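Project outcomes to date are best conveyed with an example. Our students and postdoctoral researchers have been running inverse folding experiments weekly, and each run begins with a structure described purely in tokens. The record below, which covers 336 residues, was selected by the lab manager from last quarter's runs and is presented without edits.
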């Protein structure tokens, strides 16, 4: 009897354990099913809300697509702001004073003027400084207020380091208004190379809208220059000046002798190019000169050389009468 009682008790214990395990498994199943159902309902709700907000209605967009949409909207806002600032800049002749995030930024220079001068021309340089270029604080004021950077451009003496070179260095230490091209020898036959290296140097140093070549015997009206150039801000490849097409002189005893006269055909006439006293090119063209400085050909005269560099390019030649300098001119430039 004792063994039978013990057997009954063990059987009851096994039944109780099985019932408890079955009940636990049942409750666990209900719990898991409830959680899955809740999560599925939450997911359906979120997708429907995303459809309602985005207006897609078919399928939810990915995170990457959402970021692209946001970036596109921000770019549109930035573009609209830049267009408004560009419109204002064209009215002033300068670029915007502020960046799109509202922080202060330097005004982009309107034009860098390279005034070609020679070793013995100090009197002419002093006349230019007194007439329109200024010195010291007045020179800096023109840069900040008008966006015009003016520098004398000069090479070195054939005997480098001689008294003439030292004189230029001493003058520059006082005025700080020179671009000294060490690779150029001051001589008439180096004039084209001098202008080419000036454009290259200026484009590398200053991010200006325009770059101008001028002689040291003219007066420049910077207000008229600024308003004239502002009208061409929308053209990235403009070559502006008093356009001409003169005779090619083939005799060595003639003043404007061209050693390569035979390249200009039987009629011996130059292609259209800007008169040499003053002309202007845009930033893109100055960069072109800088990049290709080693392969751009130099003719006897700098204005012909500059014109030749742009003949085969998609460049807008602007015949601007205000650059036709003369002693009685009241436009951009006049003799001094």
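After processing, the design step wrote out the following sequence:
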């Amino acid at each position: 009897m004792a063994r039978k009682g013990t057997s009954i008790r063990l059987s009851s214990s096994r039944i109780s354990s099985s019932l408890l395990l079955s009940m636990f498994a049942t409750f666990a199943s209900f719990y898991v099913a409830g959680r899955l159902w809740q999560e599925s309902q939450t997911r359906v709700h979120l997708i429907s809300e995303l459809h309602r907000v985005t207006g897609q209605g078919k399928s939810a967009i990915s995170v990457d697509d959402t970021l692209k949409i946001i970036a596109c909207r921000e770019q549109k806002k930035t573009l609209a702001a830049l267009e408004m600032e560009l419109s204002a800049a064209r009215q002033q002749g300068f670029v915007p004073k502020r960046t799109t995030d509202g922080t202060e930024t330097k005004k982009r220079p309107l034009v860098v003027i390279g005034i070609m001068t020679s070793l013995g021309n100090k009197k002419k340089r002093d006349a230019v400084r007194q007439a329109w270029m200024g010195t010291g604080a007045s020179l800096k004021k023109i840069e900040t207020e008008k966006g015009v950077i003016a520098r004398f451009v000069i090479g070195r003496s054939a005997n480098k380091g001689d008294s003439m070179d030292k004189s230029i260095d001493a003058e520059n230490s006082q005025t700080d208004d020179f671009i000294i091209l060490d690779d150029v020898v001051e001589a008439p036959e180096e004039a084209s190379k001098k202008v080419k290296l000036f454009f290259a140097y200026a484009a590398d140093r200053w991010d200006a809208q325009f770059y101008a070549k001028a002689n040291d015997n003219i007066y420049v009206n910077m207000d008229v220059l600024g308003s004239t150039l502002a009208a061409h801000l929308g053209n990235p490849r403009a070559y502006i000046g008093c356009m001409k097409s003169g005779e090619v002189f083939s005799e060595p005893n003639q003043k404007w002798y061209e050693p390569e006269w035979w390249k200009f055909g039987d009629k011996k006439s130059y292609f259209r190019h800007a008169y040499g006293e003053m002309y202007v090119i845009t930033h893109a063209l100055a960069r072109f000169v800088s990049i290709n400085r080693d392969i751009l050909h130099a003719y006897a005269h700098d204005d012909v050389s500059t014109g030749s560099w742009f003949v085969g390019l998609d460049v807008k030649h602007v015949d601007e009468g205000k650059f036709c300098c003369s002693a009685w001119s009241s436009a951009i430039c006049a003799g001094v």
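The first strand starts at residue 111 and ends at 116. The beta strands are 111-116, 148-156, 178-185, 210-215, 218-220, 238-244, 273-282, 316-319, 333-335. The training component of this project remains on track.
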